[in-house]
Structure formats: C-alpha cells, structure tokens
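Protocol step 4 of 5: obtain the predicted structure for the target chain.
Materials: sequence only (see below). No template structures provided, no constraints applied. The aim of this step is simply to have a reference model before the mutagenesis design in step 5. Sequence pasted as it appears in the construct record:
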Amino acid sequence: MAIELMCRKIGMTQLFSETGECIPVTVLDAAPNRVVQKKTEKRDGYSALQLGFGARRPSRTSKAARGHCEKAGVAPQRYLHESRVGADEAGRYEAGQEINVGIFSQGERIDVIGTSKGRGTAGVVKRHHFSIKRKTHGTHEFFRHGGSIGAGSYPGHVLKGLGMPGRMGAERVTTLNVEVVRVDSEKGLLFVRGGVPGHNNALVRIRSSVRAER
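Step 4 output (structure tokens):
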C-alpha cells in the first residue's frame, strides 16, 4: 500500500542521457496534492489518506464539498481520491498538508494508473489484433472479419471469452514498473519513460511500483 499521487498528463517528448541515448518520456504535471481527510483504523476501520488535486471555483462546488474541504483548511479541490496506506505512513501526514513530487526520485520504478483513450466500437483486427484474411482463393468483402465463433453441434453455443467486435478503450489501465527518468521539484514535473494511459490533460495516479517491492 502506497500513496497514489494525482497528476495531469501533459504529453510526450524526448530527453537525452549523458551517454547520448534518446529516451522517449511522458511529462506529468505533479502539482502538490493536499491531504483533505485522514482516516484511522480506530475511527474508520482502516487507515487511508484522502488527497485533493486541482483548484476548483467555490461557485462551481457544492456546499457539502466546500464544507468538507474547509474542515481540512484547504480550498475546494477538483479531484478527490483515497489512498490506502499503513498506519505508520498515515501518521506522518495531517489534514491540510501538501504532498509533492519529492516523494519520488530519479531511477525509481512506479506504476501509472489512468483511463485509456476511448476508441468507440472497433472490429476484431483493431481490438484483438486478429490477422487479416488472405485476399486470394475466392475471399472477398470479409478481409477483416472474424472466423467461426463456435461449433454447430457440440457445444452448440458461442464460446465464452471469444474475441468479437465491441467497444474499445475508455477503461482503467495500470502500466507497471515504469522508470522515473527525471524529477523537477521546482516546477512540479515528473518525466517517466515511455507512454502512459490516457489523453493529454488526463488525470493519472502514480505510486511506488508493486513489482519493485517483490
């Protein structure tokens, strides 16, 4: 269990290492998250930190949400998310405290959690990477269609889990074991190797990699 810091995906670019290697990176706007609520095992049955990210105009915030943030002494937050943490780690923070990108370091491995881009309704070639049929021996008009979806006799129904056309994307995706290439604490930026889920300006959450703990 680790703190999941909320960030905004800015986009992709490239950096050059000291050896001249060109590294594709995704730039994340890791502005400080504010602790809006602290939960304890004694009072709530588990320990967690509710973090807030992004400013929101009070006029666009409900009265209940304004009161919830004011109780912690913070301005209305656009996004709220709860991170399950251990009692020892939760004890280091208090309501209203800021958590910035400094909790991560260069070379560290992290997990990035986000919502993938929505692709709408897609066929089996794009959605499940089926092979395109041969354009010979009488095949026509069905080059990108799926093949048989089940036997005609036994079991006599469509097999469960069979790849078929349907909605693609717009679902939660976790990219594991991503390397932190650079941390800019002054500007609140985090540079991670490769791509991460979501479109530009999308909300993503980052945490210490669960694989690195094994």
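Step 4 remarks: Helices lie at 41-44, 63-71, 87-90, 124-128. The mean pLDDT is 92.
Proceed to step 5.
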